[in-house]
Design a protein that fits this description.
The protein has 451 residues and is α/β, with parallel strands linked by helices. It is built from 17 helices and twelve strands.
């Protein structure tokens, strides 16, 4: 399908139509500006409305909730939203089963009133675990295809224990984001939040700026429907990495996996380790849910020995992305190469071949990695495809940048919206064409009568 640009479609419609078409066009435009389709999620906001939260500040929290909801794909088979309000007691304001449309949810949020007593955060998390995320309240049965997410917003120190109950919630598969405001106890936020903490703990100095976090949470739930990708990690397991750092590398891989839409039809992930030899840890398509995939990454044993990056790249081009090793024809291919030192063999030909075959190549270097080699491996533009840090502990920041680059390439969500927009306008044009044809026939009949 050839996509006309929205401005061209607008001009065309306005040139051909009157008021009614303008109304149709507004409907179509509203579809076009919608945010990405969010992956199916049971999302519960847990909101502190203790006496330290002033009424005007609580209004700002509700604005924040409404804006996050506005960016979600709300529906029975998409994202369901609940709201738990707490102070010394807990009140279930909105169940996951209550509202199935965005407008109804936002209206319900605007009606939430502060409780204005103490700060029993642990009690609120326990309530969410036992009640808000129960099937009776509209939560879906546990499945690798359904995310369970809690967003806690608080401005003080809890008057009860949060560490143990938060651990039970995480063990039950609930991903917890903790947002602290003002004089909040940061250690408490860290006790509640999921790993990695730097992605799940946020702090703002006052409620007046909490809206800054809206974009983060809209993006956190965004999953592009056309995101079928074959991703292979090529990991340096040479002796210079050292065992403790190799564990950090495995955590880094799983950080990136967390951001992928892993399933039979979407992202497939393979893992290859190399040193003096090359070893396939698992091929593309073997693990098609995040839990199994991450467990397989954790079990990867450290090889030690040399650094034959060229040999590893040849394995990637000749085997990892072959149909025999699980690759899917016609699906975009992404290679992520990690190394901490200079290659002991020539990488030029293999690096060039990978890019000539259409693979998108990312190169990540730590410590003694050679930046010229990283640039040789990386796709264009180099600045977006190679990353370097001196310290293994700083790899988290690279994971964030690398994930963003993978997901935003040729934004399929935006394309989906544009296709829907075009289809809507095309339907309006077809209806208009029929009206014009009918009108022409009537005019012809009138002309015949006059003659």
């Amino acid at each position: 399908m050839t996509l006309l640009s929205p401005p061209l479609l607008l001009a065309l419609m306005l040139a051909l139509t009157g008021t009614q078409a303008t109304v149709d066009l507004r409907t179509a435009a509203a579809m076009a500006v919608g945010l990405c389709k969010t992956r199916p999620t049971d999302l519960v906001f847990i909101v502190d409305s203790s006496r330290s939260v002033r009424p005007s500040e609580f209004e700002q929290v509700k604005v924040f909730l409404a804006k996050v909801i506005e960016g979600l794909d709300v529906g029975p088979n998409a994202t369901r939203v609940g709201v738990v309000n707490y102070a010394s007691r807990v009140k279930n304001e909105v169940s996951l089963k209550t509202h199935r449309t965005k407008a109804a949810l936002i209206k319900a949020v605007t009606k939430v009133e502060p409780l204005s007593t103490g700060t029993m955060t642990g009690l609120a998390i326990q309530f969410a675990l036992n009640v808000a995320f129960s099937e009776n309240e509209g939560a879906r049965a546990k499945s690798p295809d359904i995310s369970k997410v809690a967003i806690i917003v608080t401005d003080g120190r809890p008057q009860d224990n949060v560490k143990d109950v938060a651990q039970r919630a995480r063990d039950a598969g609930i991903e917890i984001f903790a947002i602290g405001v003002g004089r909040v106890d940061m250690s408490t936020l860290k006790q509640m939040a999921s790993e990695p903490l730097d992605e799940h703990v946020d702090y703002v100095e006052s409620y007046s700026v909490i809206e800054k976090l809206t974009k983060k949470f809209q993006e956190a739930f965004c999953a592009c429907s056309n995101s079928a990708t074959d991703v292979v990690f090529l990991i340096d397991g040479s002796k210079s990495v050292r065992p403790e750092n190799f564990e950090l590398v495995k955590k880094w891989i799983n950080q990136i996996v967390d951001k992928l839409d892993v399933s039979d039809s979407k992202a497939h992930v393979g893992l290859v380790q190399y040193s003096s030899l090359v070893r396939q840890e698992f091929p593309l398509g073997r693990h098609n849910n995040k839990k199994d995939l991450k467990e397989a990454v954790k079990k990867m044993a450290y090889m030690e020995r040399g650094t034959m990056t060229g040999q590893a790249l040849r394995y990637l081009t000749d085997k990892s992305f072959s149909v025999g090793h699980g690759a899917r024809p016609g699906i975009s291919k992404v290679g992520i190469v990690f190394t901490d030192g200079r290659s002991q063999d020539y990488i030029g030909d293999a690096a060039k071949k990978a890019k000539e075959m259409g693979f998108k190549m990312y190169a990540v270097g730590v410590g003694n990695a050679v930046e010229d080699e990283l640039k040789e491996i990386a796709s264009e533009p180099k600045g977006e495809h190679y990353f370097y840090t001196a310290d293994f502990k700083a790899m988290t920041q690279i994971a964030k940048k690398l994930q963003i680059n993978i997901c935003q390439e040729e934004d399929p969500c935006e394309c989906d919206s544009l296709v829907k927009f075009q289809k809507k306008v095309e339907e309006a044009l077809q209806a208009l064409t029929k009206k014009i044809e009918n009108m022409s026939k009537r005019i012809a009949l009138l002309e015949n009568k006059i003659v």
